[in-house]
Design a protein that fits this description.
Layout: E1 7-9, E2 14-16, E3 19-20, H1 28-32, E4 39-41, H2 51-59, E5 64-67, H3 71-80, H4 87-94, H5 98-108, H6 132-150, E6 157-162, H7 169-178, E7 183-187, H8 194-202, E8 207-211, E9 223-227, E10 244-249, H9 252-261, E11 269-272, E12 303-304, H10 305-310, E13 315-318, H11 326-332, E14 337-340, H12 342-345, H13 354-366, E15 371-374, E16 384-387, H14 396-401, E17 413-416, E18 422-425, H15 431-436, H16 441-444, H17 450-457, H18 483-487, H19 495-502
Parallel strand pairs: 3-12, 4-14, 5-6, 6-7, 7-10, 10-11, 11-13, 13-14
Antiparallel strand pairs: 1-2, 8-9, 15-16, 17-18
The chain binds flavin mononucleotide (FMN).
């Protein structure tokens, strides 16, 4: 069975193919969730859900979520493009680290912007030993993004991070917490150590994340990515409000594990199915591809909502819930609401470039746009949804014309070198480099540089030394054609219209 995302409202049973729900009469989770908005605008990296989208959703009374993935590079590039509108400088001026903010400005701000032919100055790639300044850049950038999303209103704002990209995460979270982030949402892995880290950092205490080392041998030392707030004395020494933590899970067993075995309290869940945009959880059991080379999900991937509900936390349903009236449907299934990405990704306030948005909307209108669940594209090894759009990395000629380079490195994995030291590698880097690091040619095939491709779709593409401008890559959920109904006869649509549509208005 290939799981899809159609909703089948029955008499007292709803069935969405990746969800099982028996319709128990008492659903504690809804009442537990009444304090939260019904709609979460999903975090979308890189900078698709940037501050202005999250702000619009938050001001409309829902939970707007900024993406914290690669936010350091995004903000540093905005500065090199002249900080149009002065937003970053305004946020920096409000930051509780005036000396660091000053240094940030000195290092990266170009008042007249950057000639398009000149490469952006790069930040050093993350390692286990990234230095004080490297972490300060991540902390300040996250502060800026959340501060801008929250400034001047009382709505709720969340931040989304990927568990699979662990090295920047504590610095990003600490910066976001100083800006008053309300919720942290994390998937793409098992974020067991984050709740405890939030508790500690709220008290300005040091925290650390254990880092997996590929090929580690018995007896090798454990590796940790530490973050010590004491190294960044801020002007606000009071304890920080501890944000709520919502893990994003694709299985009820994972929800149970997070509820019982995380190192601190969680406050809710997002239950995400395989039709959602971005990365998807791999299918369970033996990997299976259909005749078009896309992963096949089956019975073992079905989430039992009764098991999730029994944990007693509010939960939101994600993946294929971008249809008219979906909030009420999800609530009838015991959920507090829904998390939606795809419809928001292509609205006016999204961080995607105008060119990408317009081209996607034109193709949606024409009804000839497809989305592929690519098992190879992402260097993480997780399936990744790719919109098949001209002039993007989804096209074989664009892919083969691009010269491989690894200069951002967010998706590199730490691995054990023969000497026992820790090295870093990415299967989308130049093939020779990857093989020299113990990888195989087969592992590099079909891998796409999501770091550069997603920066490009967010409007900050690197111009490489040979003057080639990095091509974009675009992701979305399977249900992208639903945009047609939402558009009706408009040219484009706003976040508020997405919200009205989801509420059935
Ligand atoms: C453009 C795009 C980028 C996304 N990036 C992320 C991400 O960085 N982290 C994440 O947890 N989810 C990401 N997602 C998933 C969304 O947060 C959300 O859960 C999902 O889109 C919901 O399903 P839908 O696509 O059917 O609306 C992304 C989705 C889209 C469409």
């Amino acid at each position: 069975m290939r799981l899809g995302c159609r909703a089948y409202p029955g008499k007292d049973v709803f069935h969405i193919e990746y969800l099982r729900f028996r319709g128990d009469p008492v659903r504690d989770s809804v009442s537990a969730g009444t304090a939260w908005p019904a709609i979460i605008q999903g975090g979308m990296g890189v900078a698709v859900s940037h501050w202005s989208l999250a702000r619009a959703v938050s001001m409309a009374g829902q939970l707007g979520v900024v993406s914290g993935t690669g936010i350091d590079t995004v903000v540093v590039r905005r500065m090199q493009d002249g900080d149009i509108g002065g937003h970053v400088r305004k946020a920096l001026a409000a930051s509780p680290w005036p000396a660091l903010a000053h240094e940030f400005l000195n290092r990266y701000f170009l008042a007249d912007g950057r000639p398009a032919s000149k490469p952006y100055a790069r930040l050093p790639m993350w390692t286990l030993t990234s230095n004080h300044w490297r972490k300060a850049v991540a902390m300040l950038s996250a502060y800026v993004e959340v501060w801008l999303a929250k400034h001047g209103h009382r709505g709720l704002v969340g931040i989304n991070l990927l568990t699979k990209v662990p090295l920047p995460n504590l610095a990003v979270l600490y910066g976001a917490m100083h800006a008053g982030v309300d919720v942290v949402l994390m998937g793409a892995g098992i974020p067991r150590e984050i709740p405890g880290a939030l508790d500690r950092m709220a008290r300005h205490e040091a925290a650390a994340l254990k880092i997996d080392i590929a090929g580690a041998q018995r007896g090798d030392p454990e590796q940790w990515a530490p973050f010590d707030p004491a190294a960044y004395a801020s002007t606000s020494a009071q304890p920080l409000p501890r944000p709520a933590f919502f893990p994003i899970v694709a299985a009820h067993s994972l929800a149970t594990m997070m509820a019982k075995k995380a190192n601190g309290a969680i406050q809710g869940f997002v239950v995400e199915g395989p039709t959602a945009g971005g990365h998807n959880a791999p299918a369970r059991g033996q990997a299976h591809l259909d005749e078009t080379g896309q992963p096949v999900y089956g019975e073992r991937d079905v989430v039992d909502l009764d098991e999730v509900a029994a944990l007693g936390y509010p939960y939101w349903l994600a993946g294929g819930f971008g249809f008219r009236g979906s909030v009420a449907k999800a609530q009838a299934m015991g959920a507090a609401g829904i998390q939606v990405g795809t419809l928001f990704a292509f609205c006016d306030e999204s961080g995607l470039t105008e060119s990408v948005r317009h081209r996607v909307i034109a193709a949606v209108r024409a009804g000839n746009l497809s989305v592929r669940t690519d098992p190879l594209a992402s260097p993480t090894g997780f399936p990744f949804k790719v919109v098949e759009l001209a002039q993007t990395l989804s096209q074989s000629e664009v892919y083969s014309d691009r010269k491989r380079i690894c200069d951002l490195g967010y998706l590199r994995e730490a691995y054990r070198e023969e000497s026992g030291r820790v090295g870093y590698r990415c299967p989308a880097e130049p093939v020779g480099d990857y093989v020299a690091k113990g990888g195989t040619v087969a592992q590099t095939e079909g891998r796409k540089c999501l770091c550069n491709g997603l920066m490009a779709s967010a409007g900050v593409p690197q111009t490489q030394k040979d003057r080639a401008v990095e091509p974009p890559i675009v992701t979305s959920g399977d249900e992208i054609l639903r945009i047609r109904e939402l558009l009706a006869d408009r040219e484009s649509y706003r976040a508020q219209q997405v919200i009205d549509y989801l509420k059935g208005e």
